[in-house]
Structure formats: structure tokens, C-alpha cells
Fold this sequence. Notes:
Blueprint: E1 11-16, H1 18-21, H2 42-56, E2 62-65, H3 73-86, E3 91-95, H4 98-101, H5 108-124, E4 128-132, H6 147-164, E5 167-169, H7 192-205, H8 211-225, H9 233-250, E6 262-266
Parallel strand pairs: 1-2, 1-3, 3-4, 4-5
Antiparallel strand pairs: 2-6
Helix pairs in contact: 2-7, 3-5, 5-6, 7-8
Amino acid sequence: MCSVSGSTWTRYVALGDSITEGFCDPAPAKTGPAPGVEWLGWADRLAVILDGHARLGRTSFEFANLAVRGRRIAHVVDDQIPRAIGLHADLVSVMIGGNDLMSPKADPDALATRLETGIRRLRSTGANVLLANCFDPQFAFFLKPFRGRAAVFNADIWSIARANGATVLDVWGIREFQQTSMWAADRVHLSTLGHRLLAARAAHVLGIPYAEIAARTVTAADAQTTPPVTLPLRTWLRLYAIPWAGRRLRGVSAGDGLSPKLPVPSRVGAPQ
């Protein structure tokens, strides 16, 4: 894997699905990434950290977020990665695979092979790649059946990173994500607290010197003072599980017809 410690980037592009789009992390009305953008998320928060780091080096910085809810590896490889290359990104984060792995016939090795073609293309441009693996699904009872295939996919992610000089954001290894306060009411997406922690850990992996302090602050203080959002099982089934299963059976996605929230690289705001 490549070393990125001390690097300063000028254009960061985030790729992926609903986690990177920022689901369940509401954007403050006056400091959101763009007018009408509903969600903030870990990648947008990371962009703010990277912008601050660039300012210290008197370097301009821009950010685009091409992630869209419901997207799969094929979407990232065939659509998002070519767009990131066209935007001349020098840092690209890729977090994808969760939607693929929940398919009944998912083959984690084949999925990883498909993803590697895209990572190889990104690295051939000279861009640094921050490649995230999957969350450990043992935090939610309905996701535990997918834990074995997620572990295989994660092993492949490490191999892809070593072979192509990418940097791994090891979300499986962040044990704080086993805490209910890190997850939203739907039990699938991160809460604001979870997004903040992931952004801090990503910055630390990228070698931002003050990011570790931020990560410790999130886990030590906020995790104790932020109550988890929990719903009765029947309510959770009605609001989230049954609609999700229905979309799966119909072969549709919540992101069908939607465009990225931040398709054009621009200066970032200052989320709280």
C-alpha cells in the first residue's frame, strides 16, 4: 500500500452508495454542502478536514461527492470512476459493496475482481485511492448471515490495496461501530456520531496529524452522551425492513433516477 502521510490534495472525489452520500447525517441548514442537499456524511466531513489541511499549506482545495444511494460495484466501476477520472481528482475514496453482498447469489471474490478493475484505472492516473472495506455486520441481527461473505470481500480489499498501491480505510476494525449510538434508527446507516467518527478515522489514515485527537474525542465523549436511536421491532419492520425487502423483490433501488448531490468539484463549507 502507498504512503500518503504528509500529502496535501487539491481535489477530492468521493464514490459509493448511501453511506458516502451521507444518509442519516442531516446537513445544517446554513452550512450544508449545497442548497437543497439533505444529507452531510462522513465524506463531506472528511472534505472539511482536508480543506483545513490544504489551507495550512496555502493550497486550494475542491470536493465532489458522486455517491448515490443504492449503488453497487458495477455502478462505481462503470460510471463513478470514469467521472472521477474526468474530474482530475488527486484523491478518490471508494466505499462500495454492501448492496452487492446482500444479494442471494453474491460472490465476494467475483465482486472484488470487478472492483479491482476500477481501482487499477484510478491508480493509473496517479490519484491516491482511499479504499474502504465493509463494516462488521455482527452489530445487527438481520445482517449477521452476511458476515462470512463480508469477511471474504474484506480480505480481497486488502489484497487489492497491496497490489495497486491504495490505502485501506479499515472500517471492519473500528470496534466503536458495534455501539448502537453509531447507527441511525434504520439500523443500516450511520448516525451523525458514526459519520463524524468515520471522517476522523479516514483523516487519520490519510496522515492528517490532528485527526487522531478528533477520533478520540468522538469515541470517548460523544459515545457516552449521545443516546442511541431505537425503534420497537414492529415499527422498524414497517418503516424500513419491509419497504427495503419490497424494493429488492421488485428489482428497484431507492436511488433509481437520482443524480449525485455534488457532481461538480467546489469549495467546501464548515459542517458542525
